[in-house]
Amino acid sequence: MEKSLAMATGLVALIAHDGKKAEMAALASRWRDLLFTVPLVATATTGGLIADAAGLDVHRVLSGPLGGDLQIGALIAENRVRAVLFLRDPLLAHPHEPDISALMKVCDTHNIPLATNLATAEIILGELAAGKL
Q: DSSP of the chain, one letter per residue?
């Protein structure tokens, strides 16, 4: 099931490169109880995998290469996102690298916690669970 994004705030954004999608699905499954309580937004394929693996409601935007990273960036600029979990594959070239850089820049500009690997994603989710985000 997919939640309506409407005017949702306090979103947690979930993005994963192809080589990291299985890790993201496993992460979402481990943190299912917490993620069930917050509005989620994800790029298309990642969101589908999370919904299937963890049974979570996830609003899906376009896939990253088709503009999904930029759509999430726009949500950040609108002050609707509280954290971004972006499991990146740093060893592969990505044709939409400018979009990825723009997403990271908007996180920095708006002081949004951004995890780019599994270790930092776990830290952000721990802080969210503790009510610190």
A: -----TT--SEEEEEE-GGGHHHHHHHHHHTHHHHTTS-EEEEHHHHHHHHHHH----EEE--GGGTHHHHHHHHHHTT-EEEEEEE--TTS--TTHHHHHHHHHHHHHTT--EE-SHHHHHHHHHHHHTT--
